[in-house]
Structure formats: C-alpha cells, structure tokens
Q: What sequence folds into this?
C-alpha cells in the first residue's frame, strides 16, 4: 500500500479517530461498529470504513472494530509509538503557552530545548527547560536528537531561522509565524496561522454560517 | 451567486490570498497577473483564477488584478471591514497568549471580556481588560454586542460552557478545547485542536514527508 497516495483530508481525520477511540477505550468499550462510531463522531459509516480501509483491513465484516487495536494502530500511523524531541524557538506568550502544555508530553512530544533572542529571559525555566540564546541552537541540535522545531517568532525572523534549522538537520517545523517558509521538500512543515483561522470563522459568520 | 456552495478548501485559502495581497499592496504593487501571483504563492494560476472567479469577476482578462481592490474585496468577504467583539473564556497560558496577540485587534477582532473560573486571577488586567468570574458572562453578554467566543478551557468544561454561550446569544465559537462541541447548526464553530495538528505533522514525519 502506498501511503503517499493517501489524501490530506483523510490524514487530517486520523487524530480525531484516535481521540474518539481513546475515549471509548478509557470507557471500557471493546468493540464498535462503523455505524456506532459514525453516530458518535457525527460522521458517516461509509466514510469511516473508507478512511480506515486505506490503511489496511482494521475491521472484520459484521464484527466491527476492536477498539484497543484500532486505537493503537492509528497511534502508530501518527507516530505516537515513538518519542519525538522538540525545540521551541521563541518564548513569548504563545511559545510559553505551548511549552507549558502537558498534553504534548503525554503523547510523546518532549520539548528538550527553548531558544529566544531576548537576553532578559535567558536562564528562565519553563517546566525544567531553561530558555537559551539563539546562538546555542546549533550546538544543541548537534548534541541532541531533535525531530521537530516549533516556531513561535515574528514573521520577520521566521524565514531566516527556518533556513538555519534545515541546515542543522531539522525534519519537521510546526510554524506559528504568519509567513510561508521556503524549505526543501523533504522537510515537513505544518502551518498554524491562527489569525487566518479566525478570519475563516469570520467569513462563515459573515455568510450566515453553514 | 450562492456563496453557500463555495467549497471549504477555497474558503480556507482566502486568508492566504488576503495576506499576500496585503504585502503586495504595502510594497506599492498596483496590478498583478494570476501567473505572477501563482509564482509568489507557489500555487497555480488556474487555481487562483478559479478560486477568485467563484466570488465574481475580480480580474480583467489580460490586465490582471488590481491589488488594492482585490485585497479590499477579499477583506470584505472575510468580514474584516466590520469590527468583531470577542470574549475569551479561560485565561490560562494559551488564553493569555491569545489575549495578548495584537494582530487580532489590527484586523478588527476586539477582545471585550475575559472570563475564568480561577478567583486568584480575577481582576488581573490583560491589555486593558480585567479577568472576570464566569458568573459574570451572562450579564456581560446581555450588555455587550458579542459575536465570537474564544474557548481556551479544559475539555471537561467546554461542552457546558458552549451550551451557555449559545443560550446567551453567541454566533461563533473559536474552540481550542480538545473536544467536539454540540451546538445548533446556525452557530459557527472553528476548531483549533493543536495537539491533533502536531499529530498530523508527526504522521508526515513518520511517512518520510510528502
């Protein structure tokens, strides 16, 4: 099966399946049919079957899905069976909020280093990690196995910093800066443009909702 | 033209058009062809023409788009020609980060009230707005014309609070709580599930990137 051919929309639905299955598992549910899952998720049974079939046969005709297995399989697809080491660049309000978010750690996303250009906050601790100067990023990445960088810096600096991160061997960038980064194709960038998201909400309000 | 039939993917691209056109306008560019815009946005000219044609004829064959007009038209579609009044529910790290984000205000999204259940922070000011007890939300909404609520509270509380917001007349909810809200269809909900976003990034890393 060629996973690369899986549509983006399907991939973006996987974390939601994972969330619902985790809740079902915690509630002690062992099996669930696509119809029941569809009712719960306000989705359709055929979409659920189609989505999950793309990754192989998880369900058994007439028996439904084994909740725990499916939860674990989707977790593996999402790379949650491994630990990911992250650095956070930019320890302003948003950066600090993300660094303080314990749920990431629960899922195996561990923030190992925090960098900021503001000397006034160097040495300040956020959950056991000290904020370091930007200049230390290179040697830190050489000495630690870092997968993902979270970029919470102004857009004027983001492009340059992203270039450096690529040079130092980053694999993925979670970009909160309000700019499109230009990085090689093998680097995974996930943009989180919060103000654009708010504009979409505003569009829908304008439109009367749909 | 029936705006309701516009695909979600097109709507989600509007803020990005708006961003690029704003930058072109600030750079003093007056006209741009779909080919030039496509090169800049790493998109295709035909997608740009198709997207923009859905909202009426913005461009003139052979003359390209008038940057300032198109910028303003898209801004109007996104409801940015009006002021939106917001309340923020949950003044934890993420809530405070959002309340401090000045760019929202530049776009006409004004946070008028901030509510939190933690008495220790009641009265604390975030950019001229005092944090108030949750109990004050109802009368505040009765006395202020509030469009949008930002929900930055734990998922255990989000569903109940969303119900109340609907009762008090909210029109849109920007939901950062890691749960699906159940609200009437005429209420616009935009989910911002940050940890699911990080999982998508992790999926793509797992998959070698694409």
A:
């Amino acid at each position: 099966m060629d996973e690369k051919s899986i549509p983006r929309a399907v991939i973006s639905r996987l974390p939601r399946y994972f969330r619902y299955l985790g809740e079902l598992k915690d509630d002690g549910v062992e099996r669930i049919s696509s119809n029941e899952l569809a009712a719960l998720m306000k989705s359709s049974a055929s979409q659920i079957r189609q989505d999950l079939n793309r990754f192989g046969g998880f369900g058994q005709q007439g028996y439904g899905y084994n909740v725990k297995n499916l939860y674990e399989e989707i977790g593996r697809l999402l790379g949650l069976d491994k630990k990911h080491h992250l650095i956070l660049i930019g320890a302003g309000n948003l950066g600090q909020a993300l660094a303080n978010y314990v749920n990431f750690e629960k899922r195996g996303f561990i923030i190992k280093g925090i960098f900021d250009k503001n000397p006034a906050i160097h040495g300040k601790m956020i959950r056991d990690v000290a904020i370091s100067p930007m200049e230390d990023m290179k040697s830190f990445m050489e000495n630690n196995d870092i997968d993902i960088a979270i970029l919470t810096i102004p857009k004027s600096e983001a492009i340059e910093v992203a270039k450096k991160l690529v040079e130092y061997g980053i694999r993925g960038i979670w970009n909160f800066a309000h700019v499109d980064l230009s990085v090689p194709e093998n680097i995974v960038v996930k943009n989180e443009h919060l103000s654009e998201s708010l504009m979409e909400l505003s569009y829908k309000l304008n439109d009367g909702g749909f």
